[in-house]
Amino acid sequence: MRSLKALVGLRRGSFQRVSFLSLSQQRGFSAQPNYAQNDDLQDQVLVEGRAKSRAAILNRPSALNALTTSMVARLKRLYESWEENPDIGFVLMKGSGRAFCSGADVVTLHHLINEGNVEECKTFFETLYKFVYLQGTYLKPHVAISDGITMGGGAGISLPGMFRLVTDKTVFCHPETQMGFHPDAGASFYLSRLPGYLGEYLALTGDKLNGVEMIACDLATHYSLNARLASIEERLGKLITDDPSVIQTSLAQYGDLVYPERGSVLRKIDIIDRCFGHDTVEEIIDALEKEAAESYDEWCKAALKKLREASPISLKVTLRSIREGRFETLHQCLAREYRISLNGVSKRVSDDFCEGVRARLVDKDFAPKWDPPCLAEVSEDMVDCYFSRLDELEPELELPTALREPYM
User: Fold this and answer.
1) Has residue 407 been placed in a domain?
2) Model confidence over 283-312: pLDDT tens digits?
3) Residue 362 backbone dihedrals phi, psi, to 5 degrees
4) Does residue 154 sit within a domain?
5) Contacting residues for 82 by C-beta, under 8 A, at least 6 apart
6) Are the CB atoms for 344 and 386 separated by under 8 Å?
7) Overall number of domains in the chain
8) 284: in domain
9) What CATH number did the domain enclosing 63 receive?
10) Is the pLDDT assigned to residue 99 strictly greater than 70?
11) Which residue segment(s) compose the domain that 326 sits in?
């Protein structure tokens, strides 16, 4: 298990060739997106043509660029066509406004479920996960500029990039357990490969990382100030190349020396390993309570508060998902996440996803009524159901594993 002690020192915002498929590896969130569907579908993903590259721009700023099925389907079509076009050397993705992407448009999913239209929800997850796999096996260099809010599925569509640029405005988190869901879109792959048990901590609590912290734990390859992005994009737009080394050199020219702050969660890695390395959520909570009693550390109390606010069944499902992800490939992680997501939206075991979205984003009373209401009432059989097929006739997630291999 790799330690973060060597990572919390000086790190450069320069190129590190760490592919998405070869990663070795309590701050509140107040963003309230407006999910109104008033954008033209074609305008929700814009395209910029450059000399030897193309840029996809997520363009739902009022909804923090939350993803819909049509947006992901368009992205997938664009990336497939760009990969086949010999005149395009590399691709880039960015977001409009103050977010890169806040993840799935969960309010729309919430409404679809309540209207009995679960099939459209299934289509969304199938389309999203296939796009993530396309990115993770992409044949051309891919630059993701994660400037601003990068949450949930938004991380899933940015981290497969060969080059992952973050800034002083980047906010990365996986708040799914607070909404009765689980970190998906490849999250069980990349979170499980973070140093120590940092991935379990981030997945269970929904705590945030900033751009510097993402560089320190290899979630990002480059760091730059937001004020320099215009210059970086101008430089990339002029490149006539498909050579990754040329792209990395251009990005590195605008890099900064970065240091994790004194209060960074990365400096809590020893406590995280002691507490979040346990086999069950109950043992993790017991360890945190003991740590809090002995150290009087407010960070422990904040972590406990997050865990107690989260959906009990989501906590248990998420912990198992991350643990299984440690020993699986990307396509295996996506296939498992697909099962979990379908079971979640079908209400086979619990209605916690709809209840969590209602409490946080619809009614905004922040008082979800979880079912089951506590960890003690979440049985192993309930958790097992999330990892099984809905029924024998329900198709699994089909990915082109025989045709597309991960780039290394």
Assistant:
1) no
2) 999 999 999 998 888 999 999 999 999 999
3) -100, -70
4) yes
5) 54, 88, 91, 140
6) yes
7) 1
8) yes
9) 3.90.226.10
10) yes
11) 1-394
